[in-house]
């Protein structure tokens, strides 16, 4: 007896923006459009098969019909992620793509990449991809004065390790750029360290990492090893510079010696690690956790200024406050 093929539902598809598809590029995923006849459930119809170049006429037809959102099968998410990474440079340099669209593409690209990296932290290929992404992100942040605040509007403020890593990278790169003392090569290095800073958490038992409540002493001891474990893992892969690893290993160190894993203090805390600490703490305070609400930006900055003045670099914190400016009162 013939078996009936199951009809796919909306849960089987993922949205992708039309502007993410580059003219004459070959997509290694099928593209669908959503249609809904009157009094009928919406259906997803195959619009363009994989491995066919996406043409200007196809874009025009979609635009003329008012279609700016397309769909892919959920099973093709990783293929789309690779496509987005490979085409991100073209997207952010396209004058016809809005600031919001560029930022959303960059942010979603980063989220997908870091999520895969944390799922398989021992993958040298994921680390290599992160370096290419950071190069594009730094180009975007340094060349477009609207980029930083546009990216902030794209950010997720629900705490997940991979969204946190992306947010910290954006904040830290923007701060490094504002200081005006680093070359673009150095900012790329800083960015690589920032986006990889929590890779050690990918080695932690999810029951500890995702625990909804305070950690006990044994669990906290495991958690405090993640900077060193992450740096050692990346060092073993051999494709991350020692300068970037300063951030991975040192982002929880504090100037008063109260940090971890080494408890170093003062001048022993590298400037890269000081930048990372400010970005890391600010994002942690301004994102929602199961056990506490997020602080407003100005509340987080006020807390950091008043209660962490002995732990954080005051000059860098002042520059970070100036970077956010009066926007901090509204976010």
Automatic annotation (TrEMBL):
Domain called HD-GYP: residue spans: 139-331
One Pfam entry name: HD_5
Domain of life: Bacteria
PROSITE patterns named among the record's database cross-references: HD_GYP
InterPro entries named among the record's database cross-references: HD/PDEase_dom, HD_GYP_dom
Protein name: HD domain-containing protein
């Amino acid at each position: 007896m013939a078996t009936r093929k199951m009809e796919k539902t909306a849960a089987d598809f993922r949205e992708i923006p039309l502007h993410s598809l580059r003219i004459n590029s070959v997509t290694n995923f099928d593209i669908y459009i959503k249609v809904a006849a009157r009094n009928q459930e919406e259906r997803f119809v195959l619009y363009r098969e994989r491995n066919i170049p996406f043409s200007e006429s196809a874009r025009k037809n979609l635009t003329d019909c008012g279609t700016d959102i397309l769909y892919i099968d959920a099973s093709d998410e990783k293929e789309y992620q690779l496509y987005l990474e490979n085409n991100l440079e073209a997207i952010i340099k396209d004058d016809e793509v809005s600031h919001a669209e560029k930022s959303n593409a960059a942010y979603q690209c980063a989220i997908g990449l870091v999520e895969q990296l944390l799922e398989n932290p021992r993958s040298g290929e994921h680390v290599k991809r992160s370096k290419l992404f950071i190069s594009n992100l730094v180009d975007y942040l340094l060349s477009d004065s609207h980029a930083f605040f546009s990216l902030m509007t794209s950010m997720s403020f629900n705490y997940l390790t991979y969204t946190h890593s992306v947010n910290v990278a954006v904040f830290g790169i923007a701060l490094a750029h504002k200081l005006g003392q680093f070359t673009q090569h150095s900012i790329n290095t800083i960015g690589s360290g920032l986006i990889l800073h929590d890779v050690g958490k990918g080695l932690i038992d999810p029951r500890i990492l995702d625990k909804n409540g305070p950690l006990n002493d044994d669990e906290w001891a495991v958690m405090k090893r993640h900077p060193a474990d992450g740096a050692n893992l990346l060092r073993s892969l051999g494709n991350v510079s020692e300068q970037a690893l300063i951030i991975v290993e040192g982002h929880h160190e504090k100037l008063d010696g109260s940090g971890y894993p080494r408890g170093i203090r003062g001048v022993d805390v590298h400037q890269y690690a000081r930048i990372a600490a400010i970005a890391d703490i600010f994002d942690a305070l301004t994102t929602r956790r199961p056990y506490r609400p997020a602080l407003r930006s100005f509340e987080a900055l006020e807390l950091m200024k008043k209660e962490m003045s002995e732990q954080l670099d005051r000059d860098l914190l002042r520059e970070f406050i100036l970077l956010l400016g009066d926007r901090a009162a509204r976010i």
